[in-house]
Amino acid sequence: MNFARQRLLKSAGLGSLSLSATSVLLSSPGGPSKEKLPIYPYPDKEIVLQEVPSELEKQIGVVRKQVTATYRDGYKKVQGLVDRWIGIEMAVENRVKSLMSSEESLTPSVLYIGVATLTGSILTRSRSLPLRLTFPPLLFAVSSYHFLPKTTTNVTSYFGSLEDRYLPSLAEKHDIAKAHSEMTWERTKEMIQRARNNFEGGVVGGVGKVEEVTGLKIGEVWRLGAKEKESTSKGVQEKVIEALKDEDGKVVEISRAVEEKIEAQVLQAAKAIEQKLEETGPDMETNATKKEEVKKLV
Q: Which UniProt keywords apply (predicted)?
């Protein structure tokens, strides 16, 4: 019993000593901390997860970027080509509109030009090769200048400007050839005019001799026939131009009517001369010889 009581006293003494020690430590200025503890719990710390791609994912990303860049470059090039083609179309359209004359109609004129060109190819299909190659383009150029003069002039001047810009040496040669051709044409016209004047002079001299031999006034008939022929030719030209502008089917009829009219006038003049020869000369043989001479002269 005494032993147990002593143990309790010792333990009580040790407890009092520990309490006094803790009180001394808490009351001392060198204690752990005087701050009050929070009534709420501390927030959880933020955890950052960093994704680390694998090597396969890296290679796939690189290939995808290259494919995307290639697609964008190709799309830009295709779009540039499309824009350039649209610009070319607009430039061609504007150029064609500037070359076409607003005063000329293309609907019948182009048809006439095509018919003239095909006619040239049909007429020369059994001829030599140089003629087959040159005659249809010649008819095409002549018909173009006839039916579409302003448009054809604009087109030729445009091609001439292109030739002067890109092929100056060839343009110079063309100018020289054009000058020579113009000189040749003028000389040809002069020669034709001289031959015509000589022929008319010879015919007039022959008619004068016939008048001296027969006593007939054939010169008056010749002059009347020439005047009528000239007037009819002018009338024919005017009618043909009007027909080409107004109606297409009447051109052939007008040309046929004019040919028939000219033939009728020539026959009438020949008959009048024959009648006068028959009336003036009693001798039939002399009249026959005179008729033959007159026919040769006419």
A: Membrane, Mitochondrion, Mitochondrion inner membrane
